[in-house]
């Protein structure tokens, strides 16, 4: 014990890098007798290296004089093959430190580039020309000059300091539930609610039946046909015994996400052609919505078959396999009330009790 | 010699400590960026996005208005028979759409062709129009009753009305059907 005491003080006094390791030294520092053999002695290898550098030699003047790329290009009879002058994005993303980086997806040379938009959809033009101004007018709330809104209480409650353990504790959520609703700001010219995206989702309950994947294929192709977008499939997260669906094993659902041009084309088609042809349809239920501006409604298979894309070659689809679907209209509105105002102005009827 | 290994060890502990200090940063990393800047050994394939081929289609609504859209359907023109222009849900105040009588088999039309329209001759036209409106229905009904009473008081007026009605509104009933009508009456 006494013999170790000075060494402890010594380690504190020395800089960190020179502290001896507790672990046994690795074989990197091990020296063997065979290293001193003449075949492996380092000093012998050093003598074999050349002393003169190639960088010190002078460039001949003839090489510099003959370098004239413009004249060479002009003298060329045929155009270079495309691979010689066109940039091609790398096929793989090899990480941020790789010298060969793919261009951003907005670049036309990128492999992820999607061109467009190519047209101005009718629904979008209607929104821009009439609906947006109407909504801004309808949502206008006049406040006289000098008006100050009364201060609102904080959304997250603080702890009363009745206990010393309340110090630095995170704030409590609102009363009556932990869900913080979206904040609705007054609607001005720069936050008029508009259509953000449309999700078409279809859960195919027969997808796992009798080991037959054709239900899912038909559903995927039907949703792709009506939406102009390649669908994505999803596996079930839960077991459904009557339908023979096992979690994480069976692909049971298809989904298409529509943005921008595709979205407005689909919306116009849905409102102008498909929904009026549904028999005995009252509209979208007034209580639908997730209370943050997204409205969902469903179409049964007979209604999905009314889309012009499915009608034009109806024989291609097995009639019993045409899927129903849920259509979610995502808007930038913060409340369902604003979203319903927007959607009813764009042509979707609502019925029943209107729930905000 | 020992210096080399100890340096390595400290470097390893530093990276470990950063990962333990900032555990919340790690799940939020996107696939492209890593918090600890290290060489990414795997390569991810950049798949070209697949888009179905689309055509431009002209949609003709039932009132003749047209617009184009992009669709997977190869038909150049789509003519709709039922759309927002002629469905009641989108035109709740249209009297033309509300008064559509359900006569798919044509039986009402056949009845009219055979017997004319004299069975509702006493009903004024205004009451017929406003019959659907629930607010004005009762008022119109009362008016119709008073009108019908006044009409019945004039006996000869009814005969005039019957004889004059077919020439004004409905096409004249065929000659062979007319004796049947009078005979039954």
Structure write-up:
Chain A is of the alpha+beta class and 356 residues long. Chain A contains eleven helices and eight strands. Chain A is extended and about 95 Å long. With 185 residues, chain B is mainly α. Chain B has a domain at 52-116. Chain B has seven helices and four strands, in the order H-E-E-E-E-H-H-H-H-H-H. Chain B has a three-stranded mixed beta sheet, with no helix packed on it. The model of chain B is unreliable at 1-31 and 126-132 (pLDDT under 50). Chains A and B meet through strand 1, helix 7, helix 8 and helix 10 of A and helix 1, strand 1, strand 2 and strand 3 of B. Strand 1 of chain A pairs antiparallel with strand 1 (44-45) of chain B, so a sheet runs across the interface. Chain A: It comes from Penicillium vulpinum. Chain A: GO terms for molecular function: structural constituent of ribosome. Chain A: This is Large ribosomal subunit protein uL5m.
């Amino acid at each position: 014990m006494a013999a170790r005491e000075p060494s402890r003080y010594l380690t504190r006094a020395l800089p960190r890098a020179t502290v001896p390791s507790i672990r046994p030294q690795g074989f990197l520092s091990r020296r063997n007798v065979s290293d001193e053999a003449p075949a492996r002695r380092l000093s012998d290898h050093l003598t074999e290296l050349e002393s003169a550098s190639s960088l010190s030699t002078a460039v001949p003047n003839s090489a510099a004089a003959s370098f004239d790329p413009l004249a060479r290009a002009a003298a060329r009879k045929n155009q270079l093959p495309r691979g010689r002058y066109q940039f091609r994005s790398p096929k793989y993303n090899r990480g941020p430190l790789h010298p060969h980086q793919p261009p951003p997806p907005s670049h036309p040379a990128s492999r992820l580039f999607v061109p467009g938009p190519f047209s101005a959809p009718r629904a979008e033009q209607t929104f821009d020309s009439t609906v947006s101004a109407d909504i801004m007018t309808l949502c206008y709330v006049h406040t006289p000059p000098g008006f100050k809104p009364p201060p609102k209480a904080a959304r997250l409650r603080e702890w009363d300091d009745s206990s010393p353990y309340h110090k630095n504790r995170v704030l409590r959520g609102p009363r009556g539930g932990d869900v913080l609703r979206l904040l609705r700001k007054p609607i001005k010219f720069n936050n008029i609610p508009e259509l953000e995206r449309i999700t078409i989702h279809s859960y195919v309950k027969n997808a796992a039946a009798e080991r037959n994947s054709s239900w899912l294929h038909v559903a995927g192709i039907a949703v792709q046909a009506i939406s102009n977008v390649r669908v994505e499939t999803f596996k079930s997260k839960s077991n459904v015994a009557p339908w023979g669906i096992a979690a994480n094993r069976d692909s049971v659902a298809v989904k298409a996400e529509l943005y921008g041009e595709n979205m407005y084309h689909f919306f116009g088609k849905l409102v102008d052609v498909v929904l009026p042809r549904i028999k005995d349809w009252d509209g979208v239920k007034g209580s639908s919505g997730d209370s943050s501006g997204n409205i969902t409604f469903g179409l049964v298979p007979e209604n999905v078959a009314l889309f012009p894309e499915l009608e034009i070659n109806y024989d291609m689809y097995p009639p019993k396999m045409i899927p129903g679907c849920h259509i979610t209209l995502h808007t930038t509105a913060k409340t369902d009330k604003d979203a319903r105002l927007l959607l009813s102005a764009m042509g979707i009827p609502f019925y029943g009790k209107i729930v905000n | 010699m020992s210096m080399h290994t100890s340096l390595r060890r400290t470097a390893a502990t530093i990276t470990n400590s950063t990962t333990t200090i900032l555990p919340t940063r790690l799940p939020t990393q996107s696939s492209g960026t890593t918090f600890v800047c290290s060489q990414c050994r795997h390569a991810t394939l950049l798949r070209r996005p697949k888009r179905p081929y689309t055509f431009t289609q002209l949609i003709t609504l039932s009132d003749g208005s047209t617009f184009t859209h992009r669709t997977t359907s190869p038909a150049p023109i789509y003519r709709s028979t039922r759309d927002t222009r002629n469905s009641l849900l989108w035109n709740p105040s249209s009297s033309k759409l509300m008064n559509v009588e359900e006569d798919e088999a044509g039986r009402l039309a056949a009845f009219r062709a055979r017997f004319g329209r004299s069975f509702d001759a006493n009903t004024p036209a205004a009451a017929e129009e406003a019959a659907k409106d629930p607010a004005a229905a009762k008022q119109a009904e009362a008016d119709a009753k008073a009108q019908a009473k006044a009409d019945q008081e004039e006996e000869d007026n009814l005969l005039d009305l019957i004889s004059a009605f077919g020439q004004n509104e409905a096409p004249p009933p065929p000659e062979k059907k007319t004796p049947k009508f009078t005979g039954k009456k």
